[in-house]
Design a protein that fits this description.
The structure is a single chain. The protein is of the alpha/beta class. 43% of the residues lie in helices and 21% in strands. Strand 8 and strand 9 form a beta hairpin. Helix 6 runs antiparallel to helix 10, helix 8 crosses helix 10 and helix 10 packs across helix 11. The longest helix is centred in the first third of the chain and has 25 residues. It is globular. The two termini are 25 Å apart.
Length: 346
């Protein structure tokens, strides 16, 4: 899994079992932190000419495959039945029926010698869906004891059951907006939210962010880098306040938007919180203060690797021809078994 925050490549070795219900056991995890060169390559991928982007797709696939091999060796792991790779999102515009995650599954398969499943979003987008979020299928079958599952990654997203149907949607930017602000101060991210805590909330900036039209839509679209650059970041960039104040205000904006959703759909219930934002102590304090719910922060292995775990699970479902993307979540015309299966040639 490679997320929009560009922190690194998440690797998770997991065994799934089915005895009427699905269960999992994680044997090893590792995050391969991107160096400045790879952070720049992936961060600028959307600006590349088509031929250069095609080349990066191949090179990044080899990069993933090489690190999978090293990971298996480092932790003395058995040869896996499947490798399931989300890749790294470069373009995501479901309204115009396209999405692109690079990191060629064919290259991964040939590099590792293992059957690889990738490209989990394209089919859903072709069926009129948002191509996201996809994690709710894992929430439904692996984490059903919680009333809600909240992920605080580049963007925040949430899933929950409404009657007999799983619902899910993106809420607002989190790390994809906070990390660049911390970068201005020479930090890779705002550790525990301490920079934000030192700032002063800007009421006008907060109001401008909260009034973005996307938050009042009945059916929220999948949030993307394109939307962030066109709608969200310009509001922050117009502000002449200090970086600490901008951080404080974005944290408060995220906490308000997230808490509003939690209170509307799971008041008094339990919410499992994962993703890098779960380690932002200040953000978690604000969400807890504003939401009427039991906020559950699990062990660090689940915080950091839940998305990688679930994309492994989506690959298992695809391999067995089972539904792994829900129309009730993405808005597609039907449920689907999504993903491209690549067989090694050696």
């Amino acid at each position: 899994m490679s997320g929009t925050s560009l922190d690194g490549l998440d690797l998770c070795f997991v065994e799934f079992n089915f005895d009427g219900n699905w269960s999992f056991k994680i044997s090893a995890t590792e995050c391969i932190e991107y160096d400045s060169e790879w952070r720049a390559k992936l961060g600028n991928a959307h600006t590349l000419a088509p031929v250069d982007l095609a080349e990066l797709n191949i090179v990044f696939g080899k990069y993933i495959g090489q690190h999978v091999c090293a990971f298996l060796t480092k932790f003395h792991l058995a040869d896996p039945d499947l490798i399931c790779s989300h890749g790294h999102t470069v373009f995501h515009d479901p309204a115009n029926r396209y999405t692109l995650q690079i990191g060629s599954g064919d290259e991964i398969a040939n590099c590792t010698g293992n059957t690889t499943i990738s490209d989990f979003r394209t089919l859903d987008v072709s069926l009129g869906g948002q191509g996201a979020p996809l994690v709710p299928m894992g929430d439904e079958l692996l984490f059903s004891e919680f009333d809600m599952c909240l992920n605080l990654g580049g963007f925040s997203n949430i899933s929950y059951r409404m009657g007999d149907t799983r619902r899910a949607f993106d809420i607002c930017p989190v790390n994809i907006a906070l990390n660049p602000l911390a970068n201005v101060l020479g930090k890779p991210y705002d550790l525990a939210g301490e920079l934000a805590r030192s700032g002063n909330e800007d009421e006008q900036l907060l109001a401008d962010l909260n009034q973005l039209p996307v938050y009042s839509q009945m059916n929220r679209p999948s949030l993307s880098r394109e939307w962030l650059e066109q709608a969200f970041l310009p509001i922050i960039q117009r502000s002449e306040k200090s970086i600490e104040t901008k951080l404080r205000t974005v944290v408060e904006h995220a906490a308000q938007q997230i808490s509003s959703v939690i209170n509307a759909h799971a008041a008094g219930g339990s919410v499992l919180v994962t993703g890098g934002g779960a380690k932002n102590t200040f953000l978690m304090e604000r969400i807890s203060a504003l939401s009427n719910t039991n906020v559950v922060i699990p062990e660090s292995e689940i915080i950091d690797f839940k998305e990688a775990l679930i994309f492994a699970f989506l690959g298992v479902l695809k391999y067995h021809g089972e539904i792994n993307v829900l129309k009730s979540v993405t808005g597609a015309e039907r449920d689907s078994s999504s993903g491209h299966i690549s067989l090694p040639t050696k």
